[in-house]
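User: Please predict the structure of the protein below. I'd like the answer in structure-token form so I can feed it into my own downstream comparison script.

Assistant: Understood. Taking the following sequence of 758 residues as input:
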Amino acid sequence: MKINSALIHVKNYIFLGVLIALLSLARIVPDYGGYAMSIYIALVYCRFSIAVLSPMYLAISLIFDHTLWGIIYAVAPVVIMVAAKYLHYLFAKPMRLYAVIIYAALSALPAMFVDFPAYINLEGIVYSVSLVVVCLLCCTICYAVGVRGIGRMLSVDEIIGGFALVALLANGIYYIDIYGFRIYWLLLGIAMPYAYRNLSLTQGIVIIGAAAVGGGLWREDLAMAGAVLLVFLTAYCFVQNRWIAGLAAILTHVICGLYFEAFAGNYYLNLAGFAAGVLLTTLVTDKYMKKLPAFKSGYGRESAKELVNRSRQELARRIGLVSGVFYEMSDIYSKGVVKYPSPVQAVPKIAEEILLKTCAGCINREYCQNLLGGNQQKLIEGVVTTVLTSGKATIEDLPQYLSSKCIQLPALLANCNHLALSYDIKYASGKEFEVDQKLMSGQLKGVGNILGELQEEVKSTVNIDDKLDRRIVEELGYNNIVCSDVMTLTKKGKSTVSLIVREGDRNKKALTQVLARLIRCPLEKSEERKLPDNRYCLTFTGTPKYSLTYAVASYTKQGSSASGDTYSVTKLSTDKVLVALCDGMGSGTQARAGSQSALDMVSAYYKAGFDNVNSLALVNRLLSVVSKDTFSALDMCVVDLELGIVDFIKQGGVQSVIKRLDSIQIVESNTLPLGIVEEARAQVQRQLLSVGEMVVMFTDGISDALTLKGIGHILNVLSSLNPRQICDEILNQAKALGLKDDASVVVFRLSTAVQQAA
């Protein structure tokens, strides 16, 4: 770790050395050059090691100018800054920015006195003032980058400082001439694609504009700066395709250079360098380009993202604790279940208790024991069995010995009847309590599972893409859609877009098209809310891979006020749909109310997140407790629109039919309806559907009239993929064959999201 840290420091100071060298070459005022002094003072102010910076600055400055003036120019700021550092340390006073300005002015004075005549003119005065101004600007940007770190939001003065520093660096780079080739053009070619691909338009204009101004000042030709900026703006227009943008930059450079003669010097050689730089950066893919650092030009939403994610983490932690509580409660209920042996198994125990209660104080106890050889319990067990079977034992049910010899006969009969029946009642109550405990344990565990899944969902990190949001605003503007605010959240690969638009823009087709193109996935409007100022806040979410098309047809029994059949198609989540068909007992309003109640309860539990077993077990238990005289046959399908998987869940429902692309498949059902027995178990079968395949669900009224063979024949004959036509045909055929009961049929088909949109 120490070696890595040392290497990082070495790299940093090598970079600073290059920075000082380039600013030594910079020329803003003709015949007056060098701004190494300004950057040296700024770096000292930004807490870089003065012990390392001072010899580095002295060496670089003396290499470029080792005259008497150059020596004084190099030594003066070092002496002043070393003394200032010592004094600030001695008096424990921090070095403020106003003090740095004074030190910069004092550092420029010795060189001015050495060559005083040269400074008594406008250019000399401008150069002297510019040294102090550049030092101030370098202090602001170096502090922002060197102390706070790159990638942070920059204030206005820091942006100005950055502009000045980049311009000076570009000015120094432009000085480097290798046999007519200026490396400035190669570096500009590398920087320009980075700017228009990884920065906003404003950021790009600031950075490329600064580089253009720096080169133009060295040549004393600001028209060149305008031409460079034009090259950047032209390329930015085609930023959606990096190759077209790179070609646009090169062609614009050619037009400005050859037609307008904006670039002097060895143009073709410099053009080749620029084109090579553009090509190198264009080769970098978007994936790696996004990893490069970028400055925030405005008040970004990094803090908002961090706040949201921290809040989600805390909420996930608390949900996890609550989930653990429910798991513990479930465990306590499951371990606390008291199981009683059945009455048949408990006969010996009951007989033993009767003997203890009846014979304990009997004066003939020893006589009976000697006479029967300890077989009294066997005699009593027979009586207990009679009580449990017939409900009561009389003297006629007693063995001959007991009825003729037992002097405790009335007490014996009373105890046999009382204890046997009491145990029977206790067993029934215990059995019911055991079922309730298991059910409660299962539901508590189900709640724990739901909360655990919710914890994982909440714990996942939310990403906010500022660059994408800016592009959305720009693209919508091109389509005359005014978007005042937008935020794109990405979680587990799925995007949600929330934006605010004018009332007249909320239903424009281009809105969804632009979002789908930029997000790169189909979107649908999931929420629309009107704001107090008459604008609308719209939320778009990604659509799953598949969609569902369905139809329902039903028939009410003649003479009945209402059908006992009910159906429901419920969206459980963005990618899951529940299709349910419930057949109540009989026909009429009471049967319909019963089936609707069962369907509503099941749908509610599924929407809450309970699984198949727990949902149906609880509903079945509730129905069996609430009413012993009603039951409902439930036929359900949970369709996964992302994977194309269907779970068939049957609780007393009849068979279902899948119309495959080349065959007919029957989904069997072998379960009891809801509410008949307390511990009925649902039948769950999983099937994979392909696009175009259909599922046909129906009640027993349809199957009794047509039979499975008849339904299969109809599906084979019909070539239509329209669920409505199939529903109508099945119901009409059932009527033609004398349909006598309530009947319902639900048909749904799997299709792609694109087909559904079409």
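That's the full token string. Residues 463-542 form one domain.
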